[in-house]
Amino acid sequence: MNVELMTEQGNQRVNFSGRDSHTRLPIYGLVGMGIITLAEILLFSRFPPVEMYFTPIVWTGYILILDALNFKLHGSSLIRTRPREFAFMLPWSIFCWLVFEGYNLYLQNWTYVGLPENIVLRWIGYGWSFATIFPAILETYEFVRPSFSTMRVRPREPSNRLLLSLLIAGLFCLLLPLAVNQNAASRMFALVWVGFAFLLEPINFWNGERSLIRDFRQGGIASLIALLLSGFICGILWEFWNYWASAKWHYSLPLSIPGPKIFEMPLLGYLGFPAFAIEVYCLQNFLMMILTQKRLVLSSP
Fold it and tell me: Is 2 exposed, middle or buried (0-12, 13-18, 19+ CB in 10 A)?
């Protein structure tokens, strides 16, 4: 059976024959598999450098695997076909996560343990780990999105009132946790996980950038479903690999969340990862908008 797929990043057609795809798996995908396998072996062998940097090592391997699969299966990938976007994504991922870390300094929802005492080695670990966050989410998104490409809803034109309401809601979500006392703020991190999405979606839409609102306007929901699934997949892997790592994070949640824990995260806590994936998508689209146009539009024309 032959199936043709239109990729999101252009009108390139990729043929699936059931026997072989249009290209071989890039060699760096096999390297990624080797990285994860070797890291797991060395972690349980108590090899100090791997114990120290286990999280960024395995996520580097994961990103290489997913990018290679995306190129093989879909004919497009961040590293092979959009290297400029990938190159800017790495420092942007670090910067954006430092913003979340800034919130956490006040909200105190997680802490790190087992980090190297040497400040240089510690910041190498921070930077490397934070740089993998956006690529992990977005490589997963691009891997799963074609599975939902045929799903449609009735197109709807967003009103200016709705767009302005979303923007204002985003500002409210991002500012309120900083405007209350620390005890109350520690219960409001969920607002931060949705605030940037509410804030940036209208801006991205007004400026002609990729956005979920634009998809809804055209009747598409594939991106939304793929992002929710990607967040869930990466959330499970983050918690799984974090559980075994020596340098890791612990949660200090002010609320008692009912239900069992999976690794160190309460089951209901995994709902935050799909929301975070949407924020990553919005933040990356905002970056690409800034890089590709000279002026910023903050309202409908």
Answer: exposed
pLDDT-derived band of residue 14, with 50, 70 and 90 as boundaries?
very low
Residue 152 DSSP code = B
Whole-number Cα distances in Å, 295 to 9, 231, 291, 292, 300: 23, 31, 10, 9, 14
> Between these two residues, 14 and 132, which has the higher pLDDT value?
132
Whole-prediction pTM:
0.88
71 vs 75, 82, 127, 174, CA distance in Å? Answer: 5, 11, 26, 36
DSSP annotation of 15 reads: E
pLDDT digits (tens, 9 = 90+) for 197-211: 999 999 999 999 999
Helices within the chain (DSSP H only): 27-44, 48-74, 78-81, 83-107, 119-131, 133-144, 160-179, 182-185, 189-206, 212-217, 222-244, 272-292
Contact 289, 209 (CB under 8 A): yes
Task: Give the Cα separation of 178 and 245 in Å (integer).
Answer: 32
Nearest to 54 by CA among 96, 95, 114: 114
Which comes out higher in pLDDT, residue 16 or 201? 201
Tell me the β-bridge partners of 249: 112
